[in-house]
Amino acid sequence: NEHDSENIAGMLVRCGYTKADCKETADFILFNTCCVREHAELRTFGNVGFVKELKQKNPRLILGVCGCMMQQKQVAKKLFDRFPFVDMVFGTHELKNFPLLLEQVFNNRRILRVDDSAGEVIEGLPAEREPGFSTFVNIMYGCDNFCTYCIVPYVRGRERSRSPENIIAEVRQVVNDGYIEVTLLGQNVNSYNYDGVHFPELLKRVNDEVRGLKRLRFMTSHPKDLSDELIDAMASLDKVCKHIHLPVQSGSDRMLEKMNRKYTVAGYLERIEKIREIVPEAAITTDIIAGFCSETEEDHRATLELMQKVRFDSAFMFQYSQRPGTKAARHFPDDVPPEVKTRRLNEIIELQSAISLERNRECVGQTYEVLIEGTSKRDSGSLFGRTSSNKVCVFPALGHRPGEYVKINVESCTSATLLGNIVE
Ligand code: SAH
Ligand code: SF4
């Protein structure tokens, strides 16, 4: 979704717009929404309602709402009907038509456009990227996995891979523009397939063919498709960072089956062992859902046990929330009481932060190469950056600048950050 925003900003710049300092001085405001987790709908309706008065002050102001929440037809329609001052509402598959939609708005038409079909991959959209040294490049769109809790396949459509040539051209372009770290993005990068070119081969080509690129990351790997070739690629390719995000979701086989994840706890642990054998220094991070349909205390404890076995470096942790139209919403009652979900999530978060702290303590005394990304928010005399394993590191600037690589000796840590000093 964030990269969609960058594409829309790119198209707006081509239409002659420049970035406003704040919403009060803007002539165009577009809300890009997400529906993957949480009940963000209320908040979106609130935020949109809130800008009505800006429209009254500035009649030239154009208001729009887009993103995957608007790809749900009934939600888009409800918003369009409720807020007559909103000029354009469109779904995720409409991005390519954005300039045309905008033209129609200029011709005094209100637009509601939600197309069911994702169609082919669209190439060549401009992008106004967030300034910095690290950016994202999509290698595929959509998802075919249909995990029973997940709305992504419904709002992003079927899996489509971009050609290696187009991906490499875009990586070259962003490197030309000054970025030195690129994260290749897909819902399941391990199922990337373009005319028989699979992900490890793509990774090798980007690694070898883009001069000036310093670091290469990728996200997300689905455990069911994590191949030995990918693990070998991570070990052998010089620019590929030693970090793998491998969402496990649950530590209970019964839950994994019900989620349609297509692996077992034993299978997952076998993949973890393989990663640790081939790339021992790799950080492993994950996603966990607490309180999925019919989850018992025993299932929950199995998740805590798995976390203790794997000792993830960090994790994104969520409470299950029912998403309309998914198999879980249609067939499984959302029967774990909210207070139980919250309690289980808190237990998961607490355990993970203890493990993250232990993991970070293991880094104290070690030296890591860090790409400086910016000035520390808390202390203007300090900089922050990331290690290859994606850990955030904060250290005194000593005349160094964002965009440089430095070696940092880690001297202390919290569960979220490594603290140290530049050694060279
Ligand atoms: N394609 C990635 C994940 C994309 S969504 C994968 O399969 O790993 C990112 C994360 O959001 C998921 O890993 C899951 O943990 C969480 N998530 C998705 N749907 C959810 C829901 N209905 N409730 C709670 N968390 C959810
Ligand atoms: Fe959703 Fe599963 Fe696809 Fe990830 S793999 S996007 S969780 S359906």
Protein architecture, described:
It is a single chain. The protein has 424 residues and is of the alpha/beta class. The model has no long low-confidence stretch (mean pLDDT 95). It has a 5-stranded mixed β-barrel. The protein is built from 14 helices and 19 strands. Helix 4 (73-82) links the parallel strand 2 and strand 3 (88-90). It binds S-adenosyl-L-homocysteine (SAH) and iron/sulfur cluster.
**Average pLDDT across residues?**
95
Low-confidence stretches: none
Q: What class would the helix/strand composition place it in? A: alpha/beta
Number of strands: 19
The span between the termini is 38 Å
The helicity comes to 25-40%
- Based on CA atoms alone, the radius of gyration comes out at 23 Å
Q: Strand fraction band? A: 15-25%
* Major sheet: 5 strands, mixed, barrel
* Strand order in the largest sheet: 15-16-17-19-18
Tell me which ligands are bound.
Answer: S-adenosyl-L-homocysteine, iron/sulfur cluster
Summarize the structure.
The protein is an alpha/beta fold. It is built from 14 helices and 19 strands.
Describe the protein's topology.
Elements (H helix, E strand, L loop, with lengths): L1 H13 L13 E6 L7 H10 L1 H6 L4 E6 L5 H10 L5 E3 L7 H9 L4 E3 L20 E5 L1 E2 L10 H5 L3 E2 L2 H13 L4 E5 L7 E2 L2 E2 H11 L5 E5 L8 H9 L6 E3 L7 H6 L6 H14 L4 E8 L6 H14 L3 E6 L7 H5 L6 H24 L5 E9 L6 E6 L4 E5 L8 E9 L3 E6 L2
Parallel strand pairs: 1-2, 2-3, 3-4, 5-8, 8-11, 12-13, 13-14, 17-19
Antiparallel strand pairs: 6-7, 9-10, 15-16, 15-18, 16-17, 18-19
The structure holds S-adenosyl-L-homocysteine and iron/sulfur cluster.
Iron/sulfur cluster (SF4) binds next to helix 6.
